[in-house]
Amino acid sequence: MAFAGELLISFFLIVSGIFGFVGSFGLLKLSDPMSRMHAPTKATTLGVGGVLIASILHSIFIEHHLSLHELLITLFLFITAPVSAHFIAKWHIHRHETPESLPDAGDDGVWATHDIEEDEDAADMPR
Amino acid sequence: MKTCNNWTGWKLSVISALIDFHPKTGEQLVSLFLIVALPFLGAVFPALLIRAGRNACAWSAGVTTLLAFVGLMINLPAVLRGEAVTARLEWMPWLGLNANFFLDGLGFLFAGLILGIGLLIILYARFYLSREDPMGQFYTYLLLFQGAMVGIVLSDNILLLLVFWELTSLSSFLLIGYWKHLPEGRQGARMALAVTGSGGLAMIAGMLILGHIVGSYDLSVILQNKDLIQSSPLYLPALILILLGCFTKSAQFPFHFWLPHAMAAPTPVSAYLHSATMVKAGLFLMARMWPVLSGTPEWFYIVATTGLITMVLGAVIALFKDDLKALLAFSTVSHLGLITMLLGFGTEIAAIAAIFHIINHATFKAALFMSAGIVDHETGTRDIKRLGGLRHLMPVTFTIALIASLSMAGIPPLNGFLSKEMMLEETLHTVWGQSHLLMPGLALLAALFSAAYSFRFIAHVFLGPKRSDYPAHPHDPPVGLWLAPAFLVVLVVTIGLNAQAMVGPLVKVAASAVTGGELPYFKLKLWHGFNTALLMSTIATIGGLVLLVMHGGLERVWNAMPRPEAKTIFDAVIRALTRLSRLITDTLHNGAISRYAMIFVVFTLAIAAYAYFTGTMEMPTRDVQDAPLLPIVAWFCLIAATAMLTFLHRNRQLALVLIGVVGLIVSLSFNFLSAPDLAMTQISVEVVSIILLLLCLNFLPKTTPVDSSLTIRVRDAVIAGVAGVGTAALIYAVMIRDFSFPTISEFHLANSYKGGGGTNVVNVILVDFRGFDTFGEIIVLGIAALVIFALTEAVLASNVRAYLLNRKPEWPQSGDAHPLMMVVATRVMMPIALMVATYIFFRGHNLPGGGFIAGLVAAIAFVMQYMASGFTWAAERQRIFYHGIIGSGVLIAAATGMGAWFNGLPFLTSAFGYVKIGPLEEFELATAALFDLGVFLAVLGAVMLALESLSRFAWQPGMVTEHAMDINPKRDDPPDPKSDQPTSEGET
Amino acid sequence: MELLLATAVGVLTASGIYLIMRKRTFPVILGLSQLTYAVNVFLFASGRLAINQPPILNKYAEVPYTDPLPQALVLTAIVISFGMTAVIVMLALSAYLSSRNDRIDLTEEPGDDA
Amino acid sequence: MRLLRRIFPHPHLTLLLTLVWQLLVNGISLNSLLFGLFLGIVIPVVTMPYWPNRPKLRNIPMVIEYILVVLYDIVIANIAVARIVLFKPDAARNPAWVRIPLELRSPEAIAVLAGTITMTPGTLSADLSAKGHSLLVHCLDTDDPEAVRDEIKQRYERRLKEIFE
Amino acid sequence: MNHLIIAPVVLPAILAPFIIMVIRHHLDLQRVFSVAATVLLLGISFALMGQTLGGEIQTYELGDWPAPFGIVLVLDRLSALMVLLTSVLALPIVLYAIGSGWDARGKHFHALFHFQLMGVIGAFLTGDAFNLFVFFEVLLIASYGLMTHAGGTRRLRAGVQYVVYNLLGSTLFLFALGTLYAVTGTLNMADLAVRVAEMPPDDTALLRVGAVLLLLVFAVKAALLPLHFWLPLSYANAPLPIAALFAIMTKVGAYSILRMYTLVFGPEVAVTQGLVGEWLLPAAMLTLAAGAIGILGSRDIGRLVAFAAISSMGTLLIAVGLFTPESTTAALYYMVHSTFATALMFLVADMVMERRGPDIVPRTPMPQAGIIASLFFVGAIALAGMPPLSGFIGKLLVLQVSWPAPERVAIWAIILIGSFVTIVGLARAGSLIFWKSHAVVPQAEDDGQAEIDTAPEPSPGLSFAATFALLTGLIALTIFAGPATEFAGETAEQLFNPDRYIDAVLKGAEQ
Amino acid sequence: MITYAIYFAFACFGVALMMNLWRILTSDGVGVRVLALDTMVINTIALLILYGVSISSEIFFEAAMIIAMLGFVSTVAYARFMLRGNIIE
Ligand code: NA
Ligand code: NA
Known about the structure:
The complex is a heterohexamer of chains A (127), B (988), C (114), D (165), E (511) and F (89). Chain A has 127 residues and is an all-alpha fold. Chain A has helices spanning 2-29, 33-62, 70-96. Chain A contains three helices and no strands. In chain A, helix 1 runs antiparallel to helix 2 (33-62) and helix 2 runs antiparallel to helix 3. Chain A is elongated and about 60 Å long. Chain B has 988 residues and is an all-alpha fold. Chain B is 70% helix and 1% strand. In chain B, strand 3 (912-915) and strand 4 (923-926) form a beta hairpin. Chain F is mostly helical and 89 residues long. Chain F is 83% helix and 0% strand. Chain F is flat, with a radius of gyration of 15 Å. Chain F starts with a helix and ends in a 5-residue tail after the last helix. The mean pLDDT of chain F is 88. The complex binds sodium ion (2 copies). One sodium ion (NA) binds next to helix 33 of chain B.
């Protein structure tokens, strides 16, 4: 049992290490900016996820108590990572893409990042 | 000096001074304190009475002066008996500065002159000054000056004397500059202040040295210690410094130049300051110190020579002055030189002559000044070239001026003749160097010129034909104006005729005070028989007449001669000094903080290096720990990021990213080095700081241009490098050594749980052991937020607001300002983040965490809303004002602290206990948690107020206010028939 | 370990000092933050370095603890310098907005206010 | 029921937060449950203004199913990405943009979808269209963008529609 | 337990949050509370002063933790004197700020004002080195707000410099504290003293570095050359009533030097031999010179007074740097004088500036020129060290106490020549501002005065009263120079017997 | 076994961290740099947790959690800055 636990933990650690590496390596290796974004957002997240699972398992098998709070970090990363990526993608679209270089946006005509309107309506100064 | 007694002692000394007020003998009715104080008291009235009219001012001034004069006279019998009247009051025994006064013959003579002539001046001035002149001010200044003079001559404490001495400089500054609209007045005043003030400063040093030689600052003690003083190696410095004071005040060469420029003052001032008072102060002091300072070759050569040169020079220049008052001014210089020379001789008879001439000069010179003032007043000019023939128009004035001038010229039987005769006699007995002739020869020359300018004063102003081009229509003034000079010429005549009876005893007591002992027998008399002095006088008189005749020709020669103009030189010096000061100041404080910082760093390094290399070092006592992989990686990242930041800092955005990296690594390092609390705090602060910096950078240029040359940058890099090496070496040296003593934190570790109720020792230190630091810390944070708020208000109230409202973004903005994903994510995150904040808060006492980090986390939860949904949208939802949150935070912390008072314990004493309710597990309640709540609130409020304030800069009309998200299909689309989701609520 | 930390402090200090001698507000602020890091680590290290000895009392075992006092001091210092940074950032911005000039030196003649 | 509504206006959130609290304290006790519940009630009320129109989850089993599907996809597809990153030359890769027309209307649902797309490797949601009716997705390596679009709509959007709308 | 000791810290710490929480929109109420609290503070300070007259040293152990483990406040003669000085200064300044309407020109004047007082007083009372740092920061950050109060381009830009410079100082403070703690293992000043005295003589380098860095920090505060650069730029550009309040800030530096380098690194301490007076004294002399030169070289009145403040700090630091009981007596007397005189002159400068602008050039006469000119004259007398005001006495004291010093010729020369330059400079300025204005023809004035905000002061009476109050302080200091020096002497004596302080703080518990 | 696995993971994430830094160093667009920083934050979290596992301590959990939360906020702030200039508008 203990050995199985250790095995499991080691497995997750190694997997996580690989994914962590892949994530950052991808950031370096992939040539086009949009593609680069793929690697870190998920590989790294999975890498951390692996470490967190290893940590949970470690507490169970080695320290003999249940510790699940690592899940919270996973939760945070799952909530936040897509948003970060989304923003960086928007930055890329804003800077490096034009409406023409992107696929047609359907009925809405244009993608939100390119949807720049001059709004001259004046309103009151906030406090 | 002695440090003595205490409060009580001081009180006793005051009382004893009061007892001194009681007369010991029948005569001593008026305390010297009163005599000195009266003019000062009197100075108050004119200023207050100015509404009551000019006469009231003059009367109040006159009456106080008269009272003082009468008070002085009451002391006359005692003085004549040779008794010294004293009044003592301890003022600053620690320093040796005490309000000790004494009155002897010398003091009496001078005080009498000061107060007596003062009275006459007050009378004269009442009629002299015009309606436009502020009379209250005049009399106030005059009485201040008078009081200071009286103070000088009555002081029995040289420090006290210094006080009055400088006071005369100040009050004369006001008097000379009385006519503010005249540039000559302003410049003359400043020049007089600069010269006499600087002399006074030198004298301070001299007096202090003297006091140190003797061990007392009391004149009565100092005057007893001639041998001690003269044998001291400090005698010469003291002498020179004191004489500097005397010479500047008494306008001795080469400091004589200020006096003629002081003539810009109203004539009553000139008459007062330059006949009887201010310029005589220097003489007085030389006379006063005569017993202990004179009699040495140093004294003789410095004082007598200076006097001689001054006498000759003043006389010569006076002859060629066309301004009446300038003529009189240089004649004054000359006569002061004369008296100085006499004092310099160091013999008793010379001292008697000096004293006698002081009296005589005061009488005729005051009369002459007043006459000149009358001429000026009536004719509208003081230019001799425009005058002449006034004897028919102004007979009274002519008579007064004639008598006084003749006295000045040394014509018998007037008083000026007597003392001049004595002077000439003394020069005959005086050897300068090896020369027997130098002294008498030059004295004769001076006398000759003296006669010449005196005659000129009469001849070119009053004699000759009447002119038709006077600026005004001259006639004799009202009696009020000529009464005072008339009285003085009466004295001139009577003293001349009957010197011994009139002033003999006074001269005697005064001179014996000067010499400090018995005097040789002397009698002041008109006729000494035919002697060399008389011959010299005759030559001088005849020569004077010849010079007068030759004046026109001589004047051409004089004007053709190149002469250094003292005022030009002085002005040039002052201007150069000012310019130099400006240069130094502007160069040194050029507003370049980059240079200030460099100096700061270099200076610090130098001093620290000095301290280090003059100290001792032992071998290291601690083993160096191994470095695992993780810290090496972190180290590498940190170094790389820092290096990049330094080299690439011009790209500001990149720099902020790199700062983020550095913060992250530092936080990681704290974690690794057993400081989880620090790590959390560091990273939270980091994020908020970056948000702040980004908010700020939005408005700033996005790149930093190259401002410094390569040389400067290399220099800075070298300095920075040295600083870095120094810091590294210092901390390394620290870390490889143990504490020299057990640290106090052992106590904290031992008592954290027992006494503080927490297992997180860092937190217990923060909220308990050193809660007071934390209290200060949250106040700092609160203040920071207030400052930021106030700055925002100030900037937005200025014209910057218009700029901000019309500002266009520097680069094109993307669409979709508030992306849906972000909004949703923050909405989900917010409750969780608050949960985390709560958790961090509650566990802090026992595990890493606490109010501060919790506050930051909570703040960030709110900030996320601002970032995602927009300023206005988020601000509308804010229900408690951040000011209130900050305030309540600090107040809660303070109240927690004060709660301990009710248990009779000191501020911030904590209490804790363990509670068990029903089936719940036991939990801890601690006042420290309440304190930490204060921390939490203060941090939350401060961060939010700061960020919110900064965000207000970015607000522009047209920003979306009603919706959090720019894109929201559910809001924008018609309700989907398939969906039963109600959409009526809408986003507010 | 000690050497790593000492050099890190040194490099941070050097960077900070170089940057505060620049002529624009922004790099100076960057420099101040670098200096803040440096001094915080410095102060922290005055308690000597300890790995895996957090000053959280362990009720069950006798374990060594690192010196907690410098940590508390650094915490206070971090918070205070955060407040200071916030103020200087705001002030720099206000100054820039008022003068449209982010030079930090005031070397021009006085009285040339916009 | 109404009273219960009053007390628990946001039952799912309350539940989630109570659970989060247990995770935070890393254990379950009566104290932590009660306190977690207390916070779970209070915090949603406090944060209410910042989250108007909190959606109601309609289909809890579907939520669980969705989570499992996504987790599975993450793990499996990550391996694919790793292979691409490590072994596939850049030139051989076919990155592509894909537009996903959306049927979802609720912002929360769209956000979850976009998040899911990003977290599942190989795809990354880059932008929404101007009115939010399409999602722009970037594929790391695909030969058939249509298939990607269909799979997303089928695998995720369908389930989300059931959950949220 | 004597809670009065902490009252002067807690009072502003409660009042200021109260102001920002409850009455931040009611200026009138703020004024009432602010003045009332200042008066109360004054009362507390007098009471505290009274408690020290017997010579005993009281301590207040915060959190009831024994020294050196917790933070302790110490009330001895020196701290009582400084607290009293602060509150005596505060009252006229707050009145002036109200009277001149300065407090209404920006936000949060009164809150920041009281926070500033809290910082200053805390610094004077604390017996803990790190707590001293905290209070330094409190007073500094409040001063940042006050200095930039009401904004304005130049003020803001100068504010940036002021903050940057002081942040450098604060950073240095932490380096110093880190080093000292690393060597001694304590922060309590009394405990530091004990440990420093027992320091082995063959391992002193680190301690010396710490000691000297700390001295530099205080030197920055005390505006010692070449660390004084923050002063002219901030004082001259701050609202001048604030600059008047800042007169106490430089004294915090001087106080700290006095405290630390008599208690901990006293003249007899072997470890720090050759570190303090050796360079402090020459630097102080240069400070005096730089100040005097600056007075003569100033173009505007704010800077003029700022340099006067620097030169007066130079004089003060000369006395401090001699480190004898006698010199300390002189220093303490001079410190009080310098505070009042500088503050008075800043208030007068503000009156001038508000009415005619800052430049030292002739302009048409301003309203109330007569009384302001008199005040300027009196202030100048005080600053230049002319009789009859306390400046002269102070100067004599400093000259007197430097007699035994080997550097006395240099000291005397610099003080006396400095006085001369000061006199010339002040006379020049006064005559240009007040006298020459009578010669200015009013018509030719349009360009110069256009930019000056000639808004009338709300209640000049109050401003003048405040100014006269400061003047009264100077006069009282002159008249009661005897008791004042005696108190100063006893204070100095207490300072130079640090054992009493140490015993009071550590209660003989340690060692 | 675990020890070696931990070392391996340490090495992986350490190298990852340096690669991130390299990305920041060499990249020309700020967007990629921000992305790299974001990745760095996540790798740091992994390292922290790993370190916790290696010493059997949970003391770093909160720090990791906070880094996770705050790293996101700073990434968003940087990104918003790049997109809009104003990060709060
Ligand atoms: Na804590
Ligand atoms: Na000052």
